[in-house]
Amino acid sequence: MNARDGGGGEGTLGRRRRFENSEFTVRIYPGALAEGTIYCPVSARKNTTAAEAIERVIERLRLDRTKCYVLAEVKEFGGEEWILNPSDCPVQRMLLWPRVALEQRALSGGDDYRFLLRQKNLDGSIHYGGSLQMWLRVTEERRCMVERGLLPQPEPRGDHADLCRLPELNERTLLDNLRSRFRQECIYTYVGTILIVINPFKFLPIYNPKHVKMYDNHTLGEMEPHIYAVADVAYHAMLQRRRNQCVVISGESGSGKTQSTNFLIHHLTALSQKGFASGVEQIILGAGPVLEVSK
Ligand SMILES: Nc1ncnc2c1ncn2[C@@H]1O[C@H](COP(=O)(O)OP(=O)(O)OP(=O)(O)O)[C@@H](O)[C@H]1O
């Protein structure tokens, strides 16, 4: 869970008001209700109700509106599910979770705690549609098949990973597409061979060795947009054409140019060393601050 402050303020009252206005990201796992989606991040405040959060998930994942949905809170992997009333506030429930569940969601440890989206039957009973473990296993297997090129890369619902593929291109559709992807934590979007990055200002678990391997030797656009894909194309073009390659990174101050450069260098050194640590990445990164002062 991440909180973004809604404004200034001083003292206890100010801090409390700021907290009341803080926006949190609640991850809602739709399970079998939305194929290919692990979780749907929803922005919520302390007083956002379960009904409102569900409405946002329905909208984002384009779920069947004729069905009735509820949120279930799980505190133990595979354990009992507590169904929230429509007026319950998920953020308030999350604030009772241990710190590890709130702060280290990308790591292990807090992963037992989560909200699931469940379908409610007409008679009021809950349609469970298989266990979460089973569904996560199926999703993981599908993801592996996509990685190996045996299944096509699914596009986030209603979104385009390449703005060139927007059926109608104007400022509004373009910004809507970027916003919608950003809300699903897809910070990268292509415009042909150009990569747009929106600074998430938070750690995303998309820069690990698994991703380095995943983007190794693929043509641009084949996989979900990523800075590693750009680095990969430049690296292989350099090898094939035996010519220097250039990646231009531009943006306003604080937009993430340095971070993007670091990720780029990380991928290039990982590709060139193929697992052999030579310290070259640290040497190149170490030169960064020196080069930046001469900007
Ligand atoms: N991909 C990213 N993932 C997570 N956080 C990021 C990412 N990109 C940028 N950030 C965050 O944004 C901050 C600013 O990014 P960065 O220093 O790269 O900006 P910059 O464009 O190089 O700024 P300047 O032009 O002022 O040097 C980083 O310290 C980091 O916290």
Automatic annotation (TrEMBL):
GO terms for biological process: establishment of epithelial cell apical/basal polarity; intracellular signal transduction. Residues 158-295 form the Myosin motor domain. Residues 22-122 form the Ras-associating domain. GO terms for molecular function: actin filament binding; ATP binding; GTPase activator activity; microfilament motor activity. GO terms for cellular component: actin filament; axonal growth cone; cytoplasm; membrane; myosin complex; synapse. Its main location: cytoplasm. Belongs to the TRAFAC class myosin-kinesin ATPase superfamily. Myosin family. Keywords: Actin-binding, ATP-binding, Coiled coil, Cytoplasm, Membrane, Motor protein, Myosin, Nucleotide-binding, Synapse. The keyword Oxidoreductase does not apply. ATP binds at residues 251-258. InterPro entries: Kinesin_motor_dom_sf, Myo9, Myosin_head_motor_dom-like, P-loop_NTPase, RA_dom, Ubiquitin-like_domsf. PANTHER family: UNCONVENTIONAL MYOSIN-IXA, UNCONVENTIONAL MYOSIN-IXB-LIKE PROTEIN. This is Unconventional myosin-IXa. It is found in: Cytoplasm; Membrane; Synapse.
